[in-house]
From TrEMBL:
It comes from Imperialibacter roseus. FMN binds at residues 67-71, 91, 144, 177, 218, 246, 272, 301, 322-323. This is Dihydroorotate dehydrogenase (quinone). Residues 50-340 form the Dihydroorotate dehydrogenase catalytic domain. Catalyzes the conversion of dihydroorotate to orotate with quinone as electron acceptor. Pfam families: DHO_dh (PF01180).
Amino acid sequence: MYKALIKPLFFLLSPEKAHYLAMDLLSLACKIPGGKWLMSTLFRYNRPTLEKEVFGIKFPNPVGLAAGFDKDARWIDSLDALGFGFIEIGTLTPKAQDGNPKPRLFRLPEDESLINRMGFNNQGVDAAVARLRQRKSRVIVGGNIGKNKVTPNEKAVDDYVLNFLKLFDVVDYFVVNVSSPNTPNLRALQEKEPLKELLSSLQTVNLSKPAPKPILLKIAPDLTNSQLDDVVEIVTETGIAGIIATNTTISRDGLVTDRQKVEQIGAGGLSGKILKSRSTEVIRYLHEKTGGSIPIIGVGGISTAADAKEKLDAGASLVQVYSGFIYEGPAIVKNILKQL
């Protein structure tokens, strides 16, 4: 029904308008008496065999929602009805920011992919914290944190630490995002020395807490093997909990979509099916390099159970969906879990 009727209607709208309309409709459905129960009955798939413990957290299933979909923690309770094993909010910054000018989100239907240059648009960490304090669902929530566009890289650590401290009591794990291509110079923080300083600073704050929380690093698919080796070294040295592989790519290789259309869209991170192979390569490389000692969350091009299994077989402990959720619809988690 989604692919035949609902998706074509949503795809008549701009991607951002369709996104907010879809979530408003889901929220409305869940607020109607009995609505959330009905949605949960339709879309959840709970089985003890799907439970998995990773970095000290017991996940009800291994399929999560990647950051970027619910940037401001607006829809946690509604998204919970769709059966996600965990939901990652953000990327959040200390101060609210508008992000890049619109249009900034583009569909590539022929490739079942998306290009975005959102630019960390969000209402600021305080607004998200306030919502998370009032949420009713118990779904596992990760906090994806970044820096404000106006913050120079030399001061980036301050932004990340501030986000970390404000979110600490309301999320279950953290993700350090230094791999988005849509904030100027952000990816420079993936270089060895600044990355080590950032993760060490966060881990020092984390370990000062009575009950530290898992910190993960989200990396770009565009890193070389040498850079991946540096990531492994830094993650091992700092003792953070794991890696998310991968963010969006700046590459346009392999697209079926007309080249002129892609060039007209311009800059941005590419996600979706086109990213599947490369993200799996990165997962496999990291898994083999570490002997499986560092947990990995696999993301990039997951639309089916076969896609998810490919990531898990390559060494991922958990997986996340984003573009696949948009192209496949609200039953994506249930469809994947039933076959897993």
